[in-house]
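To illustrate this point, what follows is a protein record of this kind.

___
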Amino acid sequence: MLLPDPGYTDYLAGVLLAKGQPKPLKLSRARHYLPDWNAVDTTNTRLIYLTYPNNPTGSVATKAFFQDTIDRFKQTKTKIVHDFAYQAFGFDQPNPSILQAEGAKSCAVEVFSFSKGYNMSGYRVGFAVGNAEMIENLQKYHTHTQAGMYGALQDACTVALNECDDVLYEQSRVFGHRRDLIEKTLNEAEIPHEPIKGAFSSGCNVQMGLLAMRSLTICYKKSQYLRRRVILLVKKGKVTFEFLLLLTKRN
């Protein structure tokens, strides 16, 4: 199973619980964190996880990328799970669904969450759409592991889907404004970063030194929306700071 790297850590836990063999799907800033399928060996791959807008890089996919992905795998044994948890957060344009690609239902499912766009994190509610065989297996698993969701939560989610599209637009507007403030601060501090096109975060790397320390200090002092997690890494003989920027929910 190919898991995005960098990527959401819970994917790995699920694969290990299923006794699968996880392999990293390397994503690079040079390609805006979209995989280069020509450079990936998928000979024995049975499942690929994708997530766009991407957690933790803030990058997004295009319809062309999804179509290319489906075209490559629809005649193979490889299946695709696209985690669409951050669908609401398209700061510059709406985020495409992988199911918009022709032939997508032959090999892919898309997973949607109410947690982010609708602020229903504690509800733990979502749904999956797509390939019939994959949905059937998912339903079989849930039949034996879930006791059913509280009716009031189902009613709340039904209302959200039918009546609350304006909430999604407002969420995108608010977080888009916060994105603008953070990117302005990063640019002023001369910290290279991938533009935040969606989701809540962006990964950055700066060489260690006075400039890096000054830049981090500027970011911390100037942006009330910035939380930082600093990890000291050694790579190719150079010490770098890698830190994750989060668009917090404070006003």
